[in-house]
Amino acid sequence: xxxxAEALMLWLVMDSVxxxxxxxxxxxxxxxxxxxxxxxxxxxxALLILFIFxxxxxxxxxxxxxxxxxxxISGAIILFLIAIKMIFPPTKQSKGYEEYSEPFIVPxxxxxxxxxxxxxxxxxxxxxxxxxxxxxxxxxFYRVVFYGFMFVRRHFTHKISWAKRHYRC
Length: 169
Fold this sequence. Notes:
Layout (H helix, E strand, L loop, with lengths): L2 H12 L1 H11 L5 H32 L4 H20 L20 H6 L2 H13 L4 H34 L3
Helix pairs in contact: 1-6, 1-7, 2-7, 3-6, 3-7, 4-6
């Protein structure tokens, strides 16, 4: 597998475009002056989590006596359960952030940016292609940096479009 295929696979697993509305909804109650800092902080935490599992994932798997096949099967079961939940959504509406509460690691960094599928994929790539260590490391770094940049850019694009709508030049 080449570096471009690995980067594309990580991009698809992280689902950057699909998480934009979720990020916007979670950060809607946060003042605009704090959003950029929160997004950058959460991107750094996501990168740290990704690197922890990238470098220490094989030790975690060996310590729990799990094989990569077991990790693949459990990842497939998790994706199946998520698909079932999407097909048959729960009837209760979840409450949003009604008051000012700044997210810290959860839910932005851990389940959204670097979720279980992303962690499993990074650990599997590390065990399957140990000779591509630094290529995978660079892919992970640029992917998370791009992810954070995209959300920061979305924040500034939203501010510019709001200004254009309200202050017609």
